[in-house]
Amino acid sequence: MQPLISVITPSYNQGKFIRQTVESVLSQNYPRIEYIVVDGLSTDDTLPILGEYSNRLTLIAERDSGQTDAINKGLRLATGDIVCWLNSDDYFLPGALATVGDFFADHPDKLWLTGDCQIVDEASVPIQQPVRHYKRLLRSLTPSLYLGMTNAICQPATFWRRDAHAQLGYLTESLHFTMDYDWWLRLQTLQPPAILPQPLTAFRIHANSKGGNQYALQFDEDYQTFSRYWSGAPIRFLHKLHNRAITTVYNFVK
Q1: Which domain holds residue 151?
Q2: How many domains does the chain have?
Q3: Which has the closest alpha carbon to 103: 75, 82, 84, 78?
């Protein structure tokens, strides 16, 4: 039997993109979906749009202390065998949840999986293809490279068994940029992820993306997160070198 998949969407003032996000979940050709949207009392047209889907999703609209708090609220409400979160400016590709559900049904020993994702702009046009291919290459190698040297896991294309929370707790709410990386590293202590080559989702980069103009803070938090789980000098050196290279490239293209 295919597992019930719970999808959590943390939402705040993404009225420009929220309909595409919601439609991408509700239009999946998968019969067992629980969809929970946790909105922090958006002040744009997000809530009226979400209201149009009130009979097809669970909406929690209340103040929160940020994105990670909203995700945790959804995860604690979830009843699915498999869980994930999909941010309110990203979207699933057609057939994504059927691929995920079939994988977990066929591999009861696997705790979590991650797939590929497209990187798109505001108009959903694919961008940054070299970055995407580079991360795909890293994920074909050892976890010390795709989780140690850097975080090459695509967040919206990552799914795990809900019972992992009984062992590991929930997301670390003090983290604002790298709550996903911290969670991957905690999952990794139990089992490396299964890697799927096919794209499951689209990750959107736009003018108001969280990391767009706060990348220095993001890299600081990234290294602090990394340091909690990796102590070897060689991998620490590689992680620092990799972050420095990315920052240099980012400054150049900016």
Answers
A1: 5-253
A2: 1
A3: 82
